[in-house]
Amino acid sequence: MGEMENFVELSSREFKRLKELSDKAVAQVSDTQFFQALSVGDNSIAHVYKHLSGNLVSRWTDFLTSDGEKPYRNRDDEFTISNADSYESLISKWESAWKILFDTLDSLQPADLERPVMIRGESLSALQAISRQFTHYAYHVGQIVFMAKHLLGHNWKSLSIPLGESAAFNESPEAYLESK
User: What's the CA angle centered on 159, arms 157 and 162, to 5 degrees?
Assistant: First the structure.
């Protein structure tokens, strides 16, 4: 298996981890908290979900053949919550958008990673474009997790090894994970 094949598999696995972190954080908040900004002028989790959904659809639709910034995308609208933006509709868009990413990655061949990809008129290799999206999505997933943790306070359930449990994990990772 070549390095490029490994990169596509790694990419898919790591994007799945990012999505899973978001999904687990959002599963802990109420519908009301999903739309709650931490302060005036801040984005809510709903805003970030709407924005990332728009970005995912734009970047990964026709990934190898059209600019990743599609003419139909209204990025500014992604930061406005309207009456049509229910919890259910935003979750549905989120799931559909991630499916486009995973279907695109599944379709890539090793040689495709060297092909040019355009994002906002900038030419990148497909490999560079994928790496660029990692950093963008990780940035926003971190925001989602932070907001959920902040909104839940002491009711937050850690998505990693909770503070004070590292020694137990390091002593026996398998036993630790089975106990959770």
Answer: 70
